[in-house]
C-alpha cells in the first residue's frame, strides 16, 4: 500500500482550559495539533474555531495566527460580552477530525474613579481627658486605601487609645480615647486607588480642664448706663479716636456704667 494513502486522524498536543477575561482586555487561545506518526506525505491538519456551534470568521477583533512551530492561536481583542460562551477547536484531515472545547467567561469591565471627599475633615477642639473623633467620608472605585498622618508621622496601626476605622459606605474615622496635650496638632487623611489620590488636613486642639474653647466664650453683660460712650468702649470701639483732638466732647465724659462678668 503506497505510504501517501495511509492517513491518521489528528490529535492535540496542546490545548487551553477554561478562561476568564475582563471585558476590554486581550484573550489568546493557543493549541497545537498533529498526527500520531510523522510520516512523509501526511497532510497537516486544518484548524477551525466555533463559538456556541457557529463558525468564527476573522475580523478586526478576531484573528487566527499560525506560528512556525505549528501553534495555532485565536486572538480576541478587545473582548466584549458577546465573546462569552463555549469555544470549540476542530482539527481535521482526510482521515478524520478531533476537537476540544473550553468556556470563555467575560468579567464585567472594572470601573475606575479617583477618590473624592464627600465630607472633609473639620477643625476640632476637645477638653483634655475626653474622647474625640476626626471624621470624613470618601468615595472612589475601586475602594481606596486610607492613610492617616499626624504632622509628618504616619499612623500605621491601632492602639488601645488611638484607632482607625472604615465602613462600607465610605465613612472614615480616627478615634482618640482620653485626649492629651500631645494629641493636639494637624491631622491628614489620604485616600488612594488606581485612578488617583486625594488628601485633607484639619487641626485638633486639646484644652486643659480650666480652659474654655474660644468659640464658647460668653459675652460680657453691660448694665444700662447714661454713658453711651462707656457702653461702646466696653465693646472694643475706640470712640475717642473717631473725634478730632480739639473736639473734646464734654457730654461724653460722664462716669461709665458698671460691668458685670460671669468670671467674677
Walk me through this protein's architecture:
It is a single chain. The chain has 264 residues and is mainly β. The protein folds into 2 domains: 12-107, Immunoglobulins (Immunoglobulin-like), CATH 2.60.40; 113-207, Immunoglobulin-like (Sandwich). Helix content is 3%, strand content 46%. The strands form 5 sheets. The chain has a 5-stranded mixed beta sheet, with no helix packed on it. Strands 11-18-17-13-14 form a 5-stranded mixed beta sheet, with no helix packed on it. The protein has a 4-stranded antiparallel beta sheet with strand order 1-3-7-6, with no helix packed on it.
Concise synopsis of the structure shown:
With 264 residues, the chain is an all-beta fold. It folds into 2 domains: 12-107, Immunoglobulins (Immunoglobulin-like, Sandwich); 113-207, Immunoglobulin-like. The chain is built from 1 helix and 20 strands.
**Rg (CA only):** 40 Å
Number of strands: 20
CATH superfamily of the largest domain: Immunoglobulins
Strand content: over 45%
Q: How does the helix and strand content classify structurally?
A: mainly beta
Helix fraction bin? under 10%
CATH topology of the largest domain: Immunoglobulin-like
Overall spatial form: rod-shaped
The CATH architecture of the largest domain can be named as Sandwich
Biggest β-sheet: strands ordered side by side in the sheet: 2-9-8-4-5
* The top level CATH class name of the largest domain: Mainly Beta
| Mean pLDDT score | 81
What is the N-to-C order of secondary-structure elements (H for helix, E for strand)?
A: EEEEEEEEEEEEEEEEEEEHE
Point out poorly predicted stretches.
219-261
Q: In DSSP terms, counting alpha (H) and pi (I) runs of 4 or more, how many helices?
A: 1
State the end-to-end CA separation: 126 Å
Amino acid at each position: 500500500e503506497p505510504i501517501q494513502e495511509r492517513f491518521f486522524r489528528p490529535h492535540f498536543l496542546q490545548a487551553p482550559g477554561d478562561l476568564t477575561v475582563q471585558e476590554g482586555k486581550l484573550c489568546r487561545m493557543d493549541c497545537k495539533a498533529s498526527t500520531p506518526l510523522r510520516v512523509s506525505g501526511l497532510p497537516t491538519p486544518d484548524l477551525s474555531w466555533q463559538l456556541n456551534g457557529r463558525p468564527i470568521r476573522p475580523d478586526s477583533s478576531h484573528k487566527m495566527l499560525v506560528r512556525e512551530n505549528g501553534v495555532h492561536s485565536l486572538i480576541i481583542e478587545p473582548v466584549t460580552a458577546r465573546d462569552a460562551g463555549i469555544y470549540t477547536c476542530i482539527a481535521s484531515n482526510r482521515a478524520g477530525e478531533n476537537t476540544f472545547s473550553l468556556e470563555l467567561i467575560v468579567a464585567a469591565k472594572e470601573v475606575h474613579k479617583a477618590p473624592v471627599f464627600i465630607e472633609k475633615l473639620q477643625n476640632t477642639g476637645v477638653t483634655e481627658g475626653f474622647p474625640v473623633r476626626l471624621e470624613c467620608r470618601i468615595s472612589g472605585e475601586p475602594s481606596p486605601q486610607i492613610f492617616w498622618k499626624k504632622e509628618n508621622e504616619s499612623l500605621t496601626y491601632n492602639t488601645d487609645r488611638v484607632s482607625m476605622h472604615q465602613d462600607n459606605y465610605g465613612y472614615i474615622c480616627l478615634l482618640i480615647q482620653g485626649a492629651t496635650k500631645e494629641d493636639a496638632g494637624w491631622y491628614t487623611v489620604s485616600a488612594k486607588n488606581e485612578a488617583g489620590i486625594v488628601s485633607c488636613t484639619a487641626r485638633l486642639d486639646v484644652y486643659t480642664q480650666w480652659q474654655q474653647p474660644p468659640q464658647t466664650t460668653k459675652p460680657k453683660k453691660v448694665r444700662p448706663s447714661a454713658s453711651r460712650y462707656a457702653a461702646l468702649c466696653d465693646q472694643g470701639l475706640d470712640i475717642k479716636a473717631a473725634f478730632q483732638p480739639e473736639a473734646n466732647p464734654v457730654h461724653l465724659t460722664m462716669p461709665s456704667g458698671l460691668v458685670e462678668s460671669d468670671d467674677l
